[in-house]
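Session log. Operator J.P. requested a structure for one protein chain; no other inputs attached. Running the standard single-chain path with token output.
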Amino acid sequence: MKITIYNTSIAFFFLLISMKVNAQQDPGYTQYMYNPMSVNAAYTGSTGMLDAVLIHRSQWVGIDGAPSTQAFAIHSPLRNDQIGLGFSAANDNLGPSSEIYLDANFAYTLYLGYSTKLALGIKAGARVLNVDWSKGRFYDGTDVLLNTNINDEITPSIGAGAYLYDDKWYVGLSVPSFIRGDYYDDVQQSVNVERLHYYLMAGYVFDLSDNLKFKPAVLVRGVNGAPLTYDFSANFLINEKFTIGAGYRHEDSVSALAGFQISKDLFLGYSYDYTTTDLNKYNDGSHEIVLRFQLSKKSNQIKSPRFY
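Structure written below.
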């Protein structure tokens, strides 16, 4: 029998089992407030300008095979501002598995008042799953299951969302995909059927002074058969240039966030997560970098950088 030890430590695997961790099926971000379109298609075009975001996330640094995610999103309203179009892509890696998410996004906006809007959005695309069992925790030359790799398994994806917002606040509700497909479960070391995800997001911007804004935000996620989880963050925007804040992920981590408005159109953000579970004994935290580009229209009279 030929045995190859998987890069991820056995101690890490058994620690996850003892913690009864619910495997993450969709990529999650600490700086979710800069890329809401990843979970809610109705956000598409809501910033009123061309908006593009790049994200890189390295989770649980120091553990081989830990999650690593790269994401890109771009969207913009059309000339009438009621229709928004966008595209998003993500590459999510975990142990022997990799998943690629590709989605086209569409949103239509209804004007409910002077500045209050309701956007309804849909997204359609595909997920591509690959699993190479030779990178697994255990390799047995006689085991048929562990010799049957998954190569470019494509699952269609259709999702929808609603996004109610004003100049100072927003509330969104969405299901990123109604179609259930396969995903790699790092706890069971197997491929399981994905469950539906439901997202609720909300945020408010308080003007504390001419040079100081405060924005608390929350993202709640529900998954069939699992308890609710949530991310809470609180950020300050100082002199329309510097962002600093903190975040908390339910029963998982606490975070420090910082950002700098490099120019009128370009923003750079960084976050560091400190794990609050027993897993902190085996990793050096998680790092996330965000680069956001927003091209304002010539007629746009926005005085300060968009806070959401």
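Operator note: Helices lie at 10-19.
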